[in-house]
C-alpha cells in the first residue's frame, strides 16, 4: 500500500455527504487534522494550551502541524489563526509541501514545523504591542486547509480553538506574561 500512496493513486468515491469528492489511496474521503508540533505532529484538543514561541531572531510564532489522509504526495496548505477574544485574524500563510508518509499512520502522512508567524507592532492592535502582551491567555482558533496537487481535486479543512500561553523559556519584560 505505501507504493500506492507515493503514486497518489485515487479512485472516485461514492455519493455521500462529500458528493463528488474523490477517495484517497485507501478509499477514505480526504481529511486533515490540525496540530501543534515543531519536530512531529502533536494532536490538539479544544481548550488546550499552545505556546507562543519567541524565536532566536526576535519574532513570535505558534507551531503548526497537520496529518492528512487520502491525499496525493504533494499538497498545498493554508494555516490560519484567529484571536477570538479580539476578533482579529493573526495568522494566514500558505505553501506547498510533500507530506511525510509514516507507517504509524496508515494511508496518512504528516507535516510539522510550520511557523504560524504572529504579528508584532501595529499590524494587529494599531499600537506597538508584542504578541505576549496582547495574546497571552486568549482563545485562538488554529486552522488548516489542504488541497491535493496530484490532480484529484481533493480538499479538506480542520480547526480547533486553543488558549495561548507564554514561552516558558523566554525572558521579558512582557506584562501579558506576568514577567
Could you provide a short overview of the structure?
By secondary structure, this protein is mainly beta.
Structure characteristics:
disordered N terminus; two-stranded antiparallel sheet; Immunoglobulin-like; 8% helix; 9-stranded mixed beta sheet; mainly beta; 44% strand; 179 residues; elongated; 3 helices
As a percent range, the share of helical residues equals under 10%
The overall average pLDDT, rounded, is: 78
CATH architecture, by name, is: Sandwich
Strand content: 35-45%
Q: What's the SSE pattern?
A: HEEEEEEEEEHHEE
Describe the oligomeric state of these chains in a short phrase.
single chain
**What is the level 1 CATH name?**
Mainly Beta
Structural class: mainly beta
Q: Helix count, per DSSP? A: 3
Computed over alpha carbons, the radius of gyration is 18 Å
Please describe the biggest sheet, giving its number of strands, its sense, and whether it closes into a barrel: 9 strands, mixed
Number of beta-strand segments: 11
Distance between the termini: 52 Å
Q: State the domain count.
A: 1
Coarse morphology:
elongated
CATH topology: Immunoglobulin-like
Q: Low-confidence parts lasting 5 or more residues at pLDDT below 50?
A: 1-22
